[in-house]
Amino acid sequence: MIPPPFEYFAPQSMAEAIGLLQRYGTDGKLMAGGQSLIPLMKLRLASPSYVIDLQKVPGLSTLEEHDGFLVIGTMVRESALEHSPLVRSRYPGIAEASEVVADPVVRNFATLGGNLAHADPANDHPAMMLALRARVVATGPTGHRSISIDDFLVDTFETSLDTDEVLVEIHVPQPAAHSGSAYVKFERKVGDYAVAAAAAQVTLQGDTCTQAGLGLTNVGPKAIRPVAAEQFLVGKRLDAQTIREAAKLAGDAAEPTSDLRGPAEYKRAVVRALTARALRKAAERAMGGAN
Amino acid sequence: MTQKVTLTINGEKREAEVEPRLLLVHFIREVCNLTGTHIGCDTTSCGACTVLINGTPAKSCTLLAVQVNGADITTVEGLEQNGQLDPIQQGFFEEHGLQCGFCTPGMMLVGKALLEKNPDPSEEEVRQAISGNLCRCTGYVNIVKAIQYAGKKMREPAEAAAPTA
Which of A2, A90, A220, B23 makes the best surface tag, with the fewest CB within 10 Å? Predict the structure, then answer.
């Protein structure tokens, strides 16, 4: 399969990239690693006239803690997140999401920025970023703006980025003491999109939950934040019954449709099971003393 | 409109004016006539088209040639050096790591990249590394053995290099 013809640009600076976006509007498409975009173009589900490759724009591969956030540049590869000692120790949920994206060869090129900006409800990072209450930084002709992940994810394949904006960084708040995160995915076979997946982050004081973040993958038009489940958890002891009740609320918040990966009611049951597992794992990590 | 792409493939400089939509796998197979790199699924699933880009495995059906302009690429043809099979090739030969051979170029390159980072991988580590490469013949058992054999072979010279006299 061969993509339809297009013109290719590899701008050397952000100003040049934004200039191209301004010139070409909706006919232009940014490319990070290309691991979602190129397959779509081969299938002719996407046919941009102008492809603007970000790989030569400097400064998009940051991966460090800074001013209370883990700052992840938009071009950071999945394989880098998966193997980063910092991410593995302090943000295990992100590492767990990265290591279930497609397969290891794809992950050598696939990027976090691309995963989020593509806004496929089946992608793994949006739900994890909801649970972690991340923010994304976009830059455009008038400068930078910071967008909450909730506002960033608008609908299937749709974000709140303007056509002349570039997602440049993802900012994940540093976890408070006694916090833990986890991402649990159920897939039919290795490398597949999720039947469903659940992301969780909890902060504990003793055995009481003081903060909770949850996210669900591939059970709705976009990644879903089960707000009622999050609110239910705060102020409660994280015992089996609390977790079961929160998992039920998460299942209620899911909006699955029946497809090749199973009937809707089955997926709702999977969401309940995975939410409980993610919460238990996150709580164990929070109690483990490490973040 | 075409663009000039310059790649170093198996140590040899290759230059061509190509359309931006030309996939790397087509550059390798059709522009360079290096047909050891296979096209299997053409949908980023099977890994038959895997090559090394600056030492890192990637699926060449899911990259544009223009996107890797300037890169150093290794294909299966680049494994043999001066008539000597690479240890990874010896491993697939000795351990019967292939039947039909279609997935083998990708398997060997992924195996080689793994051994560069981890010279003594466990079965699980090998299986993890090859999880983006599909084989419909072998059931993977001998592929795992082949990669581990190559690891052993690569570790040997260092171990044997110490003079014993």
Answer: A2
The structural domains of chain A, with segments of one domain joined by +, span 7-53, 63-173, 179-286
pLDDT tens, residue by residue, A155-212: 999 999 999 999 999 999 999 999 999 999 999 988 899 999 999 999 999 999 999 9
What distance in Å separates residue A100's CA from the closest CA in chain B? 11
Tell me if B59 and A105 make a contact (CB, 8 A cut-off): yes
Give the residue from A47, A78, A103 with the most B CB atoms within 10 Å of its CB, the best one to mutate.
A103
SS3 A110: coil
* Whether B42 and A1 lie within 8 Å, measured CB to CB: yes
The pLDDT tens digits for B122-163 are 999 999 999 999 999 999 999 999 999 999 999 986 655 555
pLDDT of residue B164: 53
Q: Over chain B, what HEC string results?
A: CCEEEEEEECCEEEEEEECCCCEHHHHHHHHCCCCCCCCCCCCCCCCCCEEEECCEEEEHHHCECHHHCCCEEECHHHCCECCECCHHHHHHHHCCCCCCCCCHHHHHHHHHHHHHHCCCCCHHHHHHHCCCCCCCCCCCHHHHHHHHHHHHHHHHHHHHHCCCC
Residue spans of the domains in chain B: they are: 3-78, 87-156
Tell which CATH classification among 3.10.20.30, 2.40.110.10, 2.40.10.10, 3.30.70.20 matches the domain B3-78. 3.10.20.30
Give this complex's ipTM: 0.94
The verdict on a CB contact (< 8 Å) between A102 and B47 is no
Pick the CATH number of A7-53 from 3.30.2310.20, 3.30.43.10, 2.40.40.20, 3.20.20.450: 3.30.43.10
CATH architecture of B87-156: Orthogonal Bundle (1.10)
The CATH code for residues A63-173 is: 3.30.465.10
The pLDDT of residue B1: 86
Q: Residues A54-73: what's their mean pLDDT?
A: 98
Mean pLDDT, range B65-70, rounded to an integer: 98
> What residues of chain A have any CB closer than 8 angstroms to a CB in chain B?
1-8, 10, 31, 34-35, 38-39, 41-42, 51, 53, 55, 102-106, 108-109, 190-191
